[in-house]
Design a protein that fits this description.
The protein is mainly α and 290 residues long. The chain contains 12 helices and 2 strands, in the order αααααααααααββα. The chain has a two-stranded antiparallel sheet with strand order 1-2. β1 and β2 form a beta hairpin. α2 packs across α4, α3 packs antiparallel against α4 and α4 packs antiparallel against α10. The longest helix has 35 residues. The radius of gyration is 20 Å and the shape is elongated.
Length: 290
């Protein structure tokens, strides 16, 4: 265990030392903030104003919608960035140097996974605190303690899911060039597949169905429900039909075969997908190291 933690510490230092890696890990987040400031916020407020009377609570609700999407993307992009160290160590043969120590290849891989989880968790928690300050300073309220604990739990689950998914993707590539291409593709499409760049209801039906079956989008929905619960009740007070329509169009709820998915159902998808991704990653790892 001491050897593993020493390796994790080394991977973490390498990640923090390379500011370019950190920047590109957060590039999707910067894109979301720019899109939101430029047109997403106005577009959504205009859309809501056609359903219900405009109040000051609408802006808070829309801000919470953006924050939930932002936090779910951070979990994915930061853990992917952390796995870049693994690919580079393989290509530069530095990983072979580590194997001169009394550790197996599997243990070495675990050290990279733990590092990705820690980096994703730290960035997610810092972003959560920053987002809460933003929401309160823009007219919102602090989340209560119970909701705080639930959001923290969802964030850690999101990081776990993202770590296993990115581990699986990383094991497929064999060079830094391929990994950079992979990172660009994931960083570009993840905002669409999580319904952050464009509201879910504005996408074609087949894309909407794919989003529902895409496990990494489920933490986004869970976070939206937790962040927006109070503001949804205020904005759509006495307009339950408009509320349901809004939640469906903007991906606050998922309709799974004519049934609205519960938080427990989302949780089951996240845990099940994490186990499946991890299982497939182990199979690939064993096949590559026979």
């Amino acid at each position: 265990m001491t050897m593993v933690m020493s390796l994790v510490s080394r991977h973490s230092k390498v990640f923090r030392r390379e500011r370019t890696t950190v920047f590109f890990s957060l590039l999707s987040v910067i894109i979301v903030i720019l899109l939101y400031a430029l047109f997403l916020q106005k577009t959504q407020i205009d859309s809501i104003s056609q359903m219900v009377k405009v109040t000051n609570d609408i802006e808070t609700m829309v801000n919470e919608w953006m924050v939930a999407g932002l936090l779910s993307i951070i979990a994915i992009t930061t853990t992917l960035g952390a796995f870049g160290i693994y690919v580079r160590d393989l290509e530069t043969k530095r990983a072979e140097d580590f194997l001169t120590m009394p550790i197996s290849r599997g243990t070495l891989l675990v050290s990279y996974v733990i590092n990705a989880f820690i980096i994703g968790s730290v960035f997610s928690i810092i972003a959560f605190i920053g987002c809460e300050i933003f929401l309160v300073s823009s007219g919102g309220e602090w989340v209560d303690f119970s909701t705080f604990l639930k959001i923290m739990g969802v964030l850690l689950l999101a990081v776990t899911l993202a770590s296993t998914f990115n581990l699986l993707c990383t094991l497929i590539v064999e060079s830094q060039t391929a990994f950079s291409t992979l990172s660009t593709i994931i960083g570009t499409v993840i905002g669409f597949l999580c319904g952050v760049y464009v509201p879910m209801g504005e996408l074609p039906d087949y894309v909407q169905k794919f989003m529902i079956y895409f496990p990494l989008s489920h933490p986004t929905v869970m976070l939206r429900e937790l962040f927006m619960s109070n503001s949804l009740d205020k904005v759509f007070k006495g307009a339950s039909q408009a509320k349901e329509e809004y939640m469906s169009i903007f991906g606050v709820t998922y309709d799974w075969h004519n049934q609205i998915m519960t938080q427990t159902a989302h949780l089951s998808v996240i845990v099940g997908a994490s186990i499946i991704f991890c299982f497939i990653a182990v199979l690939i790892f064993r096949a590559r190291n026979r």
